[in-house]
Fold:
Amino acid sequence: MAAAYLYLNAVIYLLLACWCVLAPARTAAAVGYASLTRSGQVEYLSIYGGLQFGLAFLFAWFAWSQQMRTGLVLALALYVPIVLFRGIGLLRWWPVEPTTLALAAVEWLMLAAALWLWCQGRPG
Structure:
């Protein structure tokens, strides 16, 4: 079960990275960025493309190498602060774009699944 969860994370981050790399203007607009300067484009490509590719690799690696607990620690280390900060942002700047809400829903689900798997005490 934990391996499937980690592979799902890998696929999600790989798809997000590809979307951001192949269509940066569309994806930036979908999450609320009005425009990107040249420096902004470099930052967007690095973080939204490169970092997400890196996360996809890590999730796949931990699943493939059967390091389930480490993969779940990675998921919790990512999703707890992301959910917390996005929740604060949603409360502060509501209403937001539908894409932002969709991402929030996925993050909440992925956090809930990580917590559930962690509490099972036997990921694998």
